[in-house]
Amino acid sequence: MRVAVPDEPLPPLQGHEGTEVYSIPIPDEDVIGSFVQGYLASQKAWLQAVLDSSARYRPMITAALAARGLPRELEFLPAVESGFQARAVSPQGATGLWQLMRNTASPYGLRMDLWLDERRDPARATEASLSKLTENRAYFGDWYLALAAYNCGIGKLAGIRRHSPGDDYWGLRRKGMLPRETAAFVPAFLALSMIFSHPGRYGLVVGWDPPPPEPRTVTLDRCVDLRILSRAAGIPVADLVTANPALNFLVTPPSSYAYALKVPAADADAVEQVLANASMPLLEFRIHVVARGDTLFAMSLRYGVSVEVISEFNPHVDPRFLKIGAQLLIPVLPVRSTQ
Fold it and tell me: How much of the chain, in percent, has pLDDT values that exceed 90?
């Protein structure tokens, strides 16, 4: 299926004049063409911004799809979900590139706690989402229903199909049996797949610069304040925050997490040199003098840090027998890195 676009000369190297071939076939449904025309007519700037944002993540997603033998068009699903924004959060709480809800992400081992929300980790969230899509495809037998279930849930879609067992996604849509969002979701995804598979045909500018090198990882054995690390290593703190979108704070988790800090490749040597100096303090602390009636739980509420963290930095302290006058180190946690 081809959708007519205004007669405009195609930029060099962006014509893609060969036949369009899709792993997930584009059916001859008018609604898909309507979405294409709507995007081009009123959201051209958004399309370009999404295409530009996708350059950071698509090589990783493409490799994950190839490893699983999945259709290449699925690399564009984050376009309709989040616009390729790793920190996107919907009003319903769906989070990350793939807009995963907590109950969807949890079965795939994504960590969501005080320190981390791995729905914002592009690689971890990609693997979880592709697993979910694979399961949906196995359950329903085709990709249109699998994508619909990704949007509204397997249980919801299975219940709808029980009332019309002979219908595929398009039949259910024509009968008005799908939730409004799901009825729009699959055609919108297919429209964006068409546009982003051949962006030059639709007047988008393709960047030819190679993607930045993959960040290097450094496994940490202590909490690290990214602001202090950035000053010591001479790199912008924003670069560390961008490379580690799963962090809830500008501080990495306790040593028990063995957190793999991602560092821009060009700055990795400087960061590793700082981290190698075990005597360098990479976290700010305040001193708490234990008073009568104090408990670690009360301190955690007062200072906004968990009992786990207080114990981490005061291993000599028995929480059952706090000694009046004893001095405890309380780490100062900065604001959440997502804000």
Answer: 71
* Helix, strand or coil, per DSSP, at residue 331: strand
Residue type, 274: V
| Whole-number Å distance between alpha carbons of 65 and 51 | 19
Q: Output the DSSP codes for 76-112.
A: GHHHHHHSS-TT-B-TT--BTTTTB-HHHHGGGT--B
Q: Does domain 30-202 have CATH number 1.10.530.10?
A: yes
State which amino acid sits at residue 306.
Answer: S
Provide the pLDDT confidence category of residue 306 given band limits of 50, 70 and 90: confident
pTM for this prediction: 0.82
Contacts of 261 by beta carbon, 8 Å cutoff, 6+ apart: 217, 218, 219, 220, 224, 240, 244, 252, 271
- Return d(Cα 85, Cα 53) in angstroms, integer: 7
Positive or negative: CA dihedral 304, 306, 309, 310: positive
Query: Could you say which of 3.40.50.80, 3.40.30.10, 3.40.50.740, 3.10.350.10 is the CATH number of the domain covering 285-331?
Result: 3.10.350.10
Is pLDDT above 90 for 20?
no
Q: Give the pLDDT score at 293.
A: 92
Break the chain into its structural domains and give their ranges: 30-202, 216-276, 285-331
Q: Which of 38, 46, 43, 50 is nearest to 97 (CA)?
A: 50
Give the mean model confidence (pLDDT) for residues 39-68: 96
Give the pLDDT band of residue 338 (cuts 50, 70, 90): very low
What does the alpha-carbon distance between residue 82 and residue 273 come to, in Å, rounded to a whole number? Answer: 36
